[in-house]
Design brief:
Number of strands: 2
Strand content: under 5%
Low-confidence stretches: 31-41, 48-53
Structural class: mainly alpha
Shape: flat
Mean pLDDT: 82
Number of domains: 1
Largest sheet: 2 strands, antiparallel
């Protein structure tokens, strides 16, 4: 594939991923925002952060993690295609590395703790460590491949 063709294809895939991420954020505009993080206190009062406090940060995080997941999915499909053609251990390591990065990105999305019932921002359960665990797996796969 020529450099121009590769550049055009990369731009096209990235543009589609941007559109997909924008669509996802528009479908769930307040997901991960402070309004969904209403935590009940022991006296029955509900604690809420001001609406403007973290809304944009959560929206941007949701956009970029969705964008990353979409690009990594395209990359995973590419690596699977390469592995089917060549059956190389290197391609298999790239597949495992990419899957670990996808899991990292998915578990770091602001919407994920909410979908699993963790609505208190101070207690997001396993989502406090899952992204880092998957990033660690990705590094281990890369380290293995580097030493192989």
């Amino acid at each position: 594939m020529s450099n121009r063709k590769a550049a055009r294809r990369t731009i096209l895939i990235s543009a589609v991923a941007v559109l997909g991420a924008v669509a996802f954020v528009m479908l769930f505009p307040e997901r991960g925002g402070p309004d969904l993080y209403a935590a009940s206190k022991s006296d029955g009062a509900v604690s809420r952060a001001p609406k403007h406090a973290f809304g944009w940060y959560h929206t941007l995080k949701q956009f970029f993690t969705t964008f990353t997941v979409l690009l990594l999915t395209v990359l995973l499909i590419t690596y699977v295609r390469i592995y089917r053609e060549m059956r190389s251990h290197f391609a298999l390591s790239l597949i495992m590395f990419t899957v670990a990065l996808i899991l990292y990105a998915v578990t770091s999305m602001p919407i994920m703790p909410i979908l699993f019932g963790f609505t208190d921002p101070e207690n997001i359960g396993p989502f406090r460590f899952l992204p880092e665990m998957f990033a660690s797996f990705a590094v281990v796969f890369l380290l293995y491949q580097s030493n192989n």
